[in-house]
Input
Amino acid sequence: MLVFVAAAALAGCDRGVATSSGELPASGSSRAEGARNAPPPGEAPEGMVWIPGGTFLMGSNDAGMADAGPVHPVTLDGFWLDRTEVTNRQFARFVKATGYLTVAERPLDPEDFPGVPREKLVPGSLVFTPPVGEVSLNNPLAWWRYVPGANWRHPEGPDSSIEEKDDHPVVQVCWDDAVAYAHWAGKRLPTEAEWEYAARGGREQAPYVWGDEWKPGGRWAANIWQGHFPDSNTPDDGHERTAPVASYPANGFGLFDMAGNAWEWCSDWYRPGYDLRPVHDPKGPPSSDDPDEPGVPKRVQRGGSFLCTDQYCTRYLPGARGKGAVDSAGSHVGFRCAMSDRPAREP
Output
């Protein structure tokens, strides 16, 4: 449901604070080189990377991420994955070809919002709005606003624009919008297991998608928050909000922005923790169950966003999870697509 107040769960990241020390120690070895040498099944679709099948350890044992455990082995078949997050340019082609209207752009049905004055039933979406000065980190409403007119063309509201941001990840797309694009493109959303396996880039439980070092060579390796959260962002990484895709080095599989920039939708329903069966190509639970918001259907989000910070939420780590109501978008939520010999998974 579209909401007029931003809950922590709709912000893509709950209050749980984690540190990189909570991950299992990295083994110090990488399987990425061998994985890259495994031949793909054919010519790569435009903009996609072949992720060879294999077995990996999925999840996190970090105490601050109780919904991401336990760490367990998973085996996957090979699949294709978009090299980058879907961009504004790509999404615009989809909209031009189909006339698709995103959920954030659609009129609101008064029957879905009993008691809400009609004058307030204006299409819009959630926008990160920095507060003036320090606020309690226990209250995400201090930095999230429902903004009428916010949508993928106007990510921060009607006065904002994606002009000259063709190569930025499209945001303000809910799960339903991402699925619609994927079906149009002949693709699908990745499963959560596929997403994490790809994000790790062949490294076994390394703390970051790029490896073991926090800032390799003293440089930022992902678009995340610098400064005091949430009131003061000092964009030392060069970007205050989203960055053009592929602005940072690729991981071991040649994938960009698997940490930070924009949260990415997965096909799986969200539930805390994992069902450890099956271990081969898991598709997630049959339905959603979030104890924080009972009755609100949610899907898994992965990768974190430009808002991730050690001060509040480090869910850009490869074993961490996010969640979102299927029909709610945000100014930090996007997606990328997968494809394989299996038929696309229906919602």
About this structure: Residues 16-101+166-347 form a domain with the paralog of FGE (formylglycine-generating enzyme) fold (CATH 3.90.1580.10). Helices lie at 32-37, 88-98, 175-184, 192-200. Residues 193 and 282 are 7 Å apart (CA to CA). Residues 1-12, 14-30, 342-347 have pLDDT under 50 and may be disordered.
